[in-house]
Amino acid sequence: MQETVGQKLKRLREAAGLSQDEMATRIGISRESITNYERGKTVMPVPVLLESAKTLGIPLGVFQEESVSDLTLIQVELHAVMNRANELMRALTQAQRSGPATTTTTDETPKSVIFADVLPLTPLRRQFVAAR
Fold first, then answer.
1. Which among 86, 73, 88 is positioned nearest to 16, based on CA atoms?
2. Per-residue model confidence (pLDDT) at position 130
3. How far is residue 64's CA from residue 60's CA, in Å, rounded to a whole number?
4. Which region, left, alpha or beta, applies to residue 40 given φ > 0 means left and ψ of -120 to 50 means alpha?
5. Exposure of 67 in the CB half-sphere (CA atoms within 13 A)
6. What is the pLDDT along the chain (132 residues), one digit of tens a residue?
7. CA distance 56 to 29
8. pTM score, two decimals?
């Protein structure tokens, strides 16, 4: 089954764990525009396609394919994870430069960042977690 560009955008955005608001903010358009693109009410201009592909970490050609493959969805999820890990590393580095700050639990043991903090709960991850 051939997907429309809007359907592909929605699947890819969801795989990245982004809401319509977050996606719109990242590519510099309104949430209403994202909604209209995903529903097929308006055609996505090339600059929006370019920014969407860049934000999702995919080649522009993905929007020209018949449908989005599972491999592409996994690549989008991985891109989102790497972006989140980079954000956490920047925050940690900035906190370390600001001076010693220790976050502890109630039993005074240091907290650590766990993988679940980095990986958004995306549709494919939900399937994986449910299968375990």
1. 73
2. 65
3. 8
4. left
5. 5
6. 789 999 999 999 999 999 999 999 999 999 999 999 999 999 999 999 999 999 999 999 999 888 888 888 898 889 888 888 888 888 888 888 876 545 555 555 444 444 444 455 556 656 655 666
7. 15
8. 0.68
Which residue from 60, 41, 48 is spatially nearest to 23, judged by alpha carbons?
Answer: 48
CB 73 within 8 A of CB 15: yes
Secondary structure E strands in 15-129 = none
Just give the CATH number of 5-131: 1.10.260.40
Judging by beta carbons within 10 Å of its beta carbon (0-12, 13-18, 19+), is residue 87 exposed, middle or buried? exposed
Contact, 27 vs 52, CB < 8 A?
yes
Q: Using alpha carbons, select from 61, 47, 50, 57 the residue that is nearest to residue 17.
A: 57
Q: Distance between CA 25 and CA 80 in Å, rounded?
A: 15
Spatial neighbors of 47 by CB under 8 A, at least 6 apart, are none
Task: Please report the sign of the dihedral spanned by the C-alpha atoms of residue 107, residue 111, residue 115, residue 117.
Answer: positive
Instruction: Give me the residue spans of the domains in the chain.
Output: 5-131
